[in-house]
Amino acid sequence: MIVQKNIVILGAGGFGREVHAWLLDWIARGDGQQTQTHCWKVAGFIDDNASAMDAFANMPPVLSSIEDFVSVPNTFVVCAIANPKVKKKVVGRMLDKGAQFLSMVHPTVVMGTNVRLGRGTVVCPLSMLSADISIGEFVTINATCTVGHDAKISRFCTLSGHCDVTGGVVLEEGVFMGSHAAVVPNVTVGEYAVIGASSLVVRKVQPGTTVFGVPAKRISR
Question: Is the peptide bond before 215 cis (omega within 30 degrees of 0)?
């Protein structure tokens, strides 16, 4: 008997639609399916905007709000929220409701040796994770990112597309990297700091600050 396992996507924004596409590909390629035991289906979204998918063709519906979510057997949640502070808050609410979170690593990701992935991690297509890397819970790594050897990415961090985290870098909890941002080797970025798009971080970034430019300089705190 084949058991159907359902996936619901937490967050029905633009990144949620991207994750939907990657999940369909993940299933189609066989990484999300074991035909003798179970099969996967993307059932829909969880979002407080009930009409979020109405304008988009061929998309599954918003099944419930976050508040109305009820955990049921054989249903798993994939987080598609990019903002680290919002992600932490909403994931906490979902965990209180008994949500079972699924990690998704797209089959085109290149994974090296001794890469440790936390619960609820999402790694999008064509990213490269090299060797001896620690990635915490509910980290989001968008498409075509690179993570170098001995890097540590703490929980709730988000890497936008085309980011480069080089060897020995430490991203503390909740760091957000904009598209094409990079951090040079052995630099620490403090918790809930924001690195602007296309910025190059060459020195330690203090917690809660926003940096931008080449080299990146603080623009707010």
Answer: yes
Q: List CB contacts of 157: < 8 A, sequence separation 6 or more.
A: 84, 136, 139, 140, 171, 173, 174, 175, 176, 177
Sign of CA dihedral 104, 106, 107, 109: negative
What does the pLDDT look like over 125-168, one tens digit per residue?
999 999 999 999 999 999 999 999 999 999 999 999 999 999 99
Distance CA 52, CA 29 (A): 28
One-letter amino acid at 51 equals S
Which DSSP string do the residues of 87-119 spell out, in sequence order? HHHHHHHHHHTT--B--EE-TT-EE-SSEEE-T
Query: pTM for this structure?
Result: 0.94
